[in-house]
Specification:
The complex is a heterodimer.
Chain A lengths: L2 H5 L3 H21 L2 H26 L4 H27 L24 H14 L30 H10 L1 H8 L3 H5 L5 H29 L4 H27 L11 H5 L3 H10 L3 E3 L2 H6 L6 H6 L8 H14 L6 E3 H15 L9 H15 L1
Parallel strand pairs in A: 1-2
Helix pairs in contact in A: 2-12, 3-4, 4-10, 6-7, 9-10
Chain B lengths: L1 E3 L2 E6 L13 E8 L2 E8 L11 E6 L5 H9 L7 E2 L16 E6 L3 H13 L7 E7 L8 H10 L3 E7 H4 L7 H4 L7 E5 L2 H13 L6 E4 L15 E5 L4 E5 L5 H7 L17 E6 L1 E4 L5 E3 L4 E3 L3 E3 L3 E4 L1
The chains are: A mainly alpha, B alpha/beta.
């Protein structure tokens, strides 16, 4: 549907947008230095400290306040590790430092999904084909129907329920999803590779389970059971939070989806790619601590424009990107977390039933408005 | 500690488990300059196995050299650097059976200084050895004081200093005038490529090339003559080689040569295409930055050859 929106930007407009955003990117790249290195090392230090403190408190978690403190610290540590560290490091945002300890080639995260498989499904497929129906498998994670363009099946009736399960077990959802069973069924991925991927997932999952549900509980002696429950809680907290952040990044009202096929992408200009990233992403407004806990994915728009720029720079870039959108009559979708999440839930509910092509009123306005201005 | 106006010796305290080096060896040092880790190679100039565990590297500032400038002018007590284990084949044999000759020029004296210090500690002091050291001027002679002290204290060590400003440019024909019996000496030489090439030729003509041991410092950024003009790219993993220009991404060049290379977005965002650079340098097509070997990973889809290179793909 928004192919029409893109068509109303002239190729020259797209080139201008491309050049301007490339300029911002180059400017930031040239400016990276000690300040950024100090930032990420501090996050690593805080994360390690929280994880250490959390695990230590859980060793004596028969004592309820220790359980509460330990579980909270470990939950926060796991969120930081997966979001501000893992996700961003594996994007290569910190590769410029050439520090092998904070590098996309070497980072393995605290998550059952193995870094190697995730980097492919996320960095390549999701970031290249963002919100293209049928190409970006992140659009509903092959499980949910989140766009009217996706064909409805009776299976989707229960998707509000699947969504709850997905949220609670999100790391497992992502890990299974990286196996691309759907692709294999369609004959687009050889089963032999599925088998080797299953092996990789099995090894990683075994390590994770051994760590959180065997080793640490055993170390806790009499506190074994509360420690196990604390670790389980921390994993669930991390799962629900990451699920929330990620769904708020691409599925609230106003996020565009694209009915493109491979040939549409062949001639896509740099500017066209940028605009598709802009239109397919939504920001979340909030205080700095919320941005940190989302791994700065609350700046989803900036992240999709510049996936390999260090996340601490997104907040600084955001006003410039917003201004560019205003000048070119492009929507810049942003809202507080409860509002964005409510829209996601509403969409999951609506799309569980057939149809749904007619969008929510404010979203339709956001979608039409720029087109009209561009036509004029 | 300053050695000359543009050269300093830095004392480092390695972490536990650092193996003792052999005099003459070098060490790779990782230094964070403005948030970015750079690796450079420096000769060890201290004696191995010191009681305080410290080691010394001697760094000469290269004009425009990011790391050497940083180390010589900004290094301070308490600074943290990364160390790779010592390596290098430019070392003395356990037992010295022949008279020795050292030929060094400029900072090429650094590995030899390590050797001389070790030899001086052996029973009986330095063995019969001649040392031709070439430097631009007396003030610019690295370790001038240490070398002269050795010459004073050890009768069998003959130091021949050559200063270009006083004696004119040194060339290999002058060797025989200073050290008549050079053909009979086991020789260790370190310095600029021109000097080493001339020595190699001279020793070959004399039929004693097995006596000559060389240490070539790898060319550094400013000196390497890195242009944006491409070169021969060797894909070590797939065994393909291709001649490429300075604007074609390595990924494209490799694919054209028939190499099966990992890739994803082809626009520098997804990191699917990274490979480890084994030698040479690449230019980032988006920023124009040049990145050198040192085992760094590069994104082949947005990097072009800056001279000939080898990559692990």
């Amino acid at each position: 549907m928004s192919t029409t929106l893109l068509e109303h930007l002239t190729p020259e407009d797209l080139d201008d947008i491309g050049a301007e955003l490339d300029g911002i990117r180059d400017e930031v790249m040239a400016d990276l230095g000690e300040r950024d290195a100090a930032y990420i090392r501090k996050v690593v230090k805080v994360q390690r400290g929280l994880e250490g403190a959390g695990r230590a408190a859980l060793l004596v978690s028969l004592f309820p306040p220790a359980w509460l403190t330990g579980t909270t610290a470990l939950s926060v540590a796991k969120v930081l590790e997966n979001m501000e560290l893992g996700h961003n490091v594996m994007h290569g945002q910190w590769d410029w430092m050439r520090d092998p300890e904070i590098h996309s080639a070497t980072w393995e995260w605290d998550n059952v999904s193995a870094a190697e498989g995730w980097k492919k499904s996320h960095n390549y497929e999701h970031h290249t084909y963002t919100n293209i129906v049928g190409k970006d498998r992140d659009l509903g994670y092959t499980l949910l129907r989140l766009d009217a363009e996706q064909p409805w099946k009776p299976f989707h009736l229960a998707q509000p329920l699947y969504n709850i399960v997905l949220a609670v077990a999100f790391q497992w959802g992502v890990a299974l999803y990286d196996l691309e069973l759907d692709e294999a069924r369609k004959g687009r991925k050889p089963w032999s590779r599925v088998v080797s991927d299953v092996g990789r997932l099995g090894r990683k999952a075994a390590r994770q389970i051994a760590k959180d549900y065997v080793a640490w509980p055993l170390l806790s002696g009499p506190s074994a059971v509360p420690t196990l429950l604390g670790n389980l809680t921390a994993n669930v907290v991390r799962n629900v939070w990451t699920h929330t952040v990620i769904f708020c990044g691409h599925f609230p009202d106003g996020a565009e989806t694209f009915d493109f096929d491979e040939s549409d992408l062949d001639g896509e200009s740099r500017g066209g790619w940028y605009v598709r990233q802009l239109l397919g992403s939504c920001n979340v407004d909030g205080p700095p601590v919320m941005h940190l806990m989302t791994g700065n994915l609350s700046y989803q728009i900036e992240h999709h424009l510049f996936p390999d720029l260090p996340s601490n720079r997104y907040a600084e870039l955001a006003p410039r990107v917003r201004a560019l959108c205003e000048r070119h009559g492009l929507p810049y979708v942003s809202g507080p977390l409860p509002k964005q999440y409510a829209q996601v839930i509403r969409k999951i509910l609506r799309m569980s039933l057939p149809g749904g092509g007619e969008a929510a009123p404010e979203a339709a306005a956001a979608r039409r408005d720029p087109i009209l201005r561009l036509v004029a | 500690m300053a050695e000359t106006r543009d050269c300093a010796t830095l004392w480092l305290r390695p972490g536990r488990g650092w193996p003792a080096h052999v005099p003459g060896q070098y060490v790779r040092v990782g230094v964070d300059v403005d948030g970015v880790r750079h690796w450079r190679t420096y000769s060890l100039t201290s004696l191995p196995g010191r009681r305080d565990g410290r080691i010394a590297i001697t760094v000469k500032r290269i004009p425009g050299g990011l790391v050497s400038e940083y180390l010589v002018s900004q290094a301070c007590r308490g600074m943290l650097v990364r160390l790779a284990p010592p390596t290098g084949e430019f070392v003395l044999p356990d037992a010295v059976e022949h008279p020795l000759l050292f030929v060094t020029a400029g900072s090429g004296v650094t590995p030899v200084m390590g050797m001389l210090r070790a030899l001086a500690r052996r029973p009986g002091g330095l063995p019969d050895s001649a040392h031709v050291h070439v430097a631009p001027s007396p003030e610019d002679t690295i370790f001038a004081g240490d070398l002269r002290a050795l010459a004073r204290d050890h009768d069998r060590y003959a130091l021949h200093e050559h200063h270009d400003d006083r004696d004119g440019r040194w060339d290999v024909t002058k060797l025989g005038r200073r050290v008549r019996d050079w053909r009979e000496r086991e020789t260790w030489a370190c310095g600029p490529a021109g000097l080493l090439d001339a020595l190699t030729e001279r020793f070959e003509r004399a039929g004693v090339s097995e006596r000559l041991h060389l240490e070539r410092f790898r060319p550094i950024a400013a000196a390497a003559g890195v242009g944006g003009d491409g070169g021969r790219v060797s894909f070590l993993g797939s065994g393909k080689e291709v001649e490429t220009d300075g604007t074609t991404p390595l990924l494209v060049a490799g694919e054209q040569a028939g190499a099966l290379l990992p890739h994803g977005c082809r626009m520098g965002i997804c990191n699917s295409c990274i490979g480890r650079l084994r030698s040479g340098a690449v230019r980032d097509l988006r920023t124009g930055d040049v990145q050198h070997a040192d085992g760094q990973t590069v994104r082949t889809c947005v990097s072009a050859a800056a001279g000939s290179l080898e990559i692990d793909l």
